[in-house]
Design goal:
mainly alpha, 45% helix, globular
Length: 73
């Protein structure tokens, strides 16, 4: 059975940083979708990034910044 994880806790930090860089550069734009994540090279973790679907650009950036900041604690 497939386990669906909610949130970004299980996404590797390096992958979150890579996604943030693409978002900041305007290469991944809101609203994020499964196909957009797959095209950007995140198909392997697209399910775990589902929490980002539907966010506007500011929300998308904020969610990634918060997730990365929490890991620096």
């Amino acid at each position: 059975a497939r386990v669906t994880r909610v949130g970004l806790a299980h996404v590797p930090t390096e992958r979150l940083r890579a996604l943030y860089k693409l978002v900041a550069a305007g290469k991944v734009t809101a609203p994020v979708s499964m196909p957009a994540l797959m095209l950007a090279g995140f198909g392997d973790i697209a399910d775990e990034l589902a929490i980002l679907h539907g966010l506007d650009q500011a929300g998308l950036r904020a969610a990634l910044v918060i997730a990365l900041a929490e890991r620096k604690r």
